[in-house]
Protein: Inositol monophosphatase
Amino acid sequence: MNAIDVTERLDFACALARRAGQRALGYAADIGALDVRSKGVQDMATEADDAVERLVRDAVEATYPDDGFLGEESCELFRPDASRGTWVVDPIDGTQPFICCLSTWCVSLSWFAEGRVRLGVIYDPNRDELFSAALDQGATLNGQAMRASSATGLDQGLVGIGHSNRVTTDDTLDPMRRLLDANGMFHRCGSGALTLAHVAAGRLIGYYEPHMNAWDAIAGDLLVREAGGRTNEPVRDVNDLLTGAPMLAAAPAVWPALQSIIKGSA
Structure:
């Protein structure tokens, strides 16, 4: 993999994430006028999701026409092609908070090539925070290096928890119960991508979701690892991009305890 290619793509992704976030903010200013549709239980989409994804797709196709593209709102069109890199995009992660006029949503972009996530960018337009990382090059927040938390125990911070209708309630509640029994505390904001960015920035000590789609997970997964944290690295093959997987991330010293909590062996 050419280092220059990755650097150019990272710069492109950072600028594009900002453009996409500002477009989404424009829609957020008039939420009541948006067309909203349901994709399932607690799984919503709006015309803003569609418009922002089109903006990103058009920019990628214009700049990197030979790259693949996987977007949440058009995932049925994706055809895995291991011979080229693939952009993986969630135009608005946290659509339910977005619809409810809450600020816990973001734009998530990543580039997957040769079996690895090569770059990841998460932009929170409400706080104008840009989290970015490239493989083996570290992670930054608004251009400044960031590090995962130095916490050494589950009682020293908050652990983000995610849930979706793709799993049972017990899949989420059993680990939460064990976390609380271990003197930990959970946090949920409605955006898994943004929560992973906060783990990378050291604001949270960990994150767990029983099943997470690639477009929600892999940018944040890279951010955490490049910030010195640990993850289960859920996507290791281009075919994994469509299946989703459990997502576990943590500050390095907290990883063993959180891993035991999730496995039920604590």
In short: The mean pLDDT is 91. The helical segments are 3-28, 47-63, 95-99, 169-181, 192-200, 214-226, 255-263.
